[in-house]
Amino acid sequence: MMMTAGMAANAAPAPDSFADLAERLLPSVVNISTTQTLKNADKGLDMPQFPPGSPFEDFFKNFMDKHGGGNNPDAAPRRATALGSGFIIDPAGLVVTNNHVIADADEITAILQDGQAYKAEIVGRDTKADLALLKINAPTKLPAISFGNSDEMRVGDWVLAIGNPFGMAGSVTAGIISARARDINAGPYDDFLQTDAAINKGNSGGPLLNLKGEVIGINTAIFSPSGGSIGIGFAIPANLAKPVITDLQKYGKARRGWLGVRIQSVTDEIAESLGLKEQRGALVADVSPGGPAAKAGIKKGDVITRFDGRDVSEMHRLPRIVAETPINREAEVVLWRDGKKLTVRAVVGELSDAEETEQAKAAEKPSAKQDAGQTAIAGLGLSVAPLSPALRERYDLGNDAKGVVVTEVKPTGAAADKGVRPGDLIIEVSQEAVKSPADLAAKIDAARKSGRKSVLLLVQSEAGVHFVPLKIDATSSSKKDGGQ
């Protein structure tokens, strides 16, 4: 295929050699060595098992006791070491690495290219972004490298990775950016750069660099069935890392923006239910009382399509955009509500540890029995009943519970396909409150008669409050059971 003149103008030429660049950058990359004391009481070696009276029994018992294993309470604690990489960002001795490289370490040592080793102190760390900032005290200024603009990197651009794979200090590998915005389920702000530059164990925390010698990523993870490089490595983008590193230097922790919403993806069915022309944005499933979103007038059922001048093309983008927004900034939020676009302004708050680590309950509920007076919602494959003291007790529902209770779900119905379970509460249908089973049935029948192919239910389950789109049968109608 012939390359056009425009494409040729934008493409960087392949270098004849990376030698000059590597020579300039290597002094700024350090090897990280950590030491952790393992108490033999819970970390000791397991003694091999032999039949009683075996001649090997005493031999191995003496060996294990001597070397700190087994159950000898007087055995000396063992020390474990681990290796990683980092890079200097300030001549005064500030070093960036991954948090997982120095996690649980008793001692951290940074080793420079010339072999000089210095004890490193932790300035700050952030588990969510897997970043840590260290400080070493050297008698002279150290060679530092700077961050580049990772947003400018394109798939196919050349990159270098420098680090300490398998303890082999100062290793340089070259490759390209293979993909952008990878979500590997490592954390809530996943937006990794993917590269085929060889990255192995020990490379974690080292820099991924462009041809200008700027850090555009921090090597963090690999995909490998064997544990070695197969050309699929992942790096934290510099533009995600820079504000976190700045916060770690100033406050010792990362400070993130907070909007106060629980969100979920917009599927094709949800988009059709809400009248959206395309599948995009973040659907608001719940709003924290008194939070920035609530104060701005954002409601359950709104779809956030743009935040502070940045498009929310998919749900996953919103948490990162909000997290990167300066605290106390008044941000413009573009919403889709009731078939219309509207704009509100929200003052971004600060995400607290409690809000960041909130987890849903995972207790199993008892199975449902047939309830007198329950209503079967035909076409959805479920039955519901009004809230009652017995149902509140059976499903552990609080006094503030609203809506109707799902009492039965047919295994082959639309509700079962979407994960609806007995004990869930249906709070709204198409963003209108549900007051009784008859009210729910009427709203479903009305949607069916108007030609709607699906309805959007607001459901409260063990996983929290979320929207569930359900297809409806155009020929079915709801009926009330006789209590048999």
Automatic annotation (TrEMBL):
GO terms for molecular function: serine-type endopeptidase activity. Its EC number is 3.4.21.107. One of its GO terms (biological process) is proteolysis. Substrate binds at H100, D130, G202, N203, S204. It is an enzyme of class 3 (hydrolase). Its main location: periplasm. The active site is at H100, D130, S204. Belongs to the peptidase S1C family. This is Probable periplasmic serine endoprotease DegP-like. It comes from Telmatospirillum siberiense.
